[in-house]
Amino acid sequence: MIPYGRQDISEEDIAAVLEVLHSRNLTQGPAIPGFEEAVAEAAGAPHAVALANATAGLHLACLALDLGPGDRLWTVPNSFLASANCGRYCGAEVDFVDIHPRTFDMDPLALAAKLERARDRAELPSIVVPVHFGGRPCPLKKIAELGQEFGFKILEDASHAIGAKFKGDSAVGCCAHSSASVFSFHPVKLVTSGEGGVVTTQDPELAAKIRLLREHGVSRDSVTAKREGAWYYEQSLLGFNYRLTDLQAALGRSQMTRLESFVSQRNQLADRYRRELADLPLVLPLPTESGRSADHLFVVRVPKKAGVTRRELFDALRERGIGVHVHYIPIHLQPYYRSLGFSPGDFPQAEAYYREALSIPLFHGMSEAEQDRVIGALSELLG
Ligand SMILES: *Cc1c(COP(=O)(O)O)cnc(C)c1O
Predict the structure, then answer these.
(1) How far is the CA of 242 from the centre of ligand 1 (A)?
(2) pTM above 0.90, yes or no
(3) Which atom of ligand 1 lies at the shortest distance from residue 57's CA?
């Protein structure tokens, strides 16, 4: 089976993890700041905090941005559950903004219209979570202009987008137009640490608060500690244990040295798909005209004119050993979110997209022969 995504572990990656195993620190050691620095540098942000996973990163970023009961968080239905759940963890109300039918990420026009309606009812969000879907930079500047006008903070879900660039070449994660960005290092993402997440920000206080929340809300460097003794620690907030281990951080740091090569391989594979699939009755993802996509996913839409349904194409490809997938079932259609009052029809673009979406295999290390098999199977089934 050719999977839709696959990690790429080198001998250097293995050596980096072994080094930690032979060292004194399996956790809370020097590999963590090393990994954080590598991500901060790639993202062009001054601060980075590594956490157990991106879900923990979204949760703590929301808490550190003071999201709580009575507040509202808006995201897109076309994302992984965690983009919305982070708001619920904080006791906030979650709502969604429909997507753009060609870029599959937050539609700034839909956002603007929804904000106007929310202002009339005094129900404006305090945090908006746009998603750089598939690694393609979302229209963050437009969203940030609305943030200025309507007074919400922006938390970027950049789980798909390490190595992506905005128009003008600044990296996704630099946070020029947001409070913070969150990257995921789960094995299906571009760079992996096994499990892992990193929050980047330009705000030193926000970074410090996320660090504190990561470690039980406990600090050890207070003035009192000097007076009381070296054992002393102090809990100032209700925090969590959301730490990453050094084993994971060493893997992540080692993988980060190959980020450029991972992304450029993906860019080439995506370009080749666009050329080779151009004549098939599929709606191909738009190329990124300015900036650079990290090409985490390659999602095609299977329109009516294709003559087969998405389900039929999905099953036929899987039968041929092509590991296609679907990203994403609209979050608001999950039973949990339905129980909160959402229903089919609420976000028509995301729902129409979901009926047609198909992620075809794309990963760094994918060979031309593997890609030819995918292209061949699609041509045979649709030609
Ligand atoms: C993978 C993913 C997450 C969650 O990442 P974890 O590291 O698995 O917690 C959140 N949002 C999006 C868009 C993702 O793809």
Answers:
(1) 15
(2) yes
(3) 9
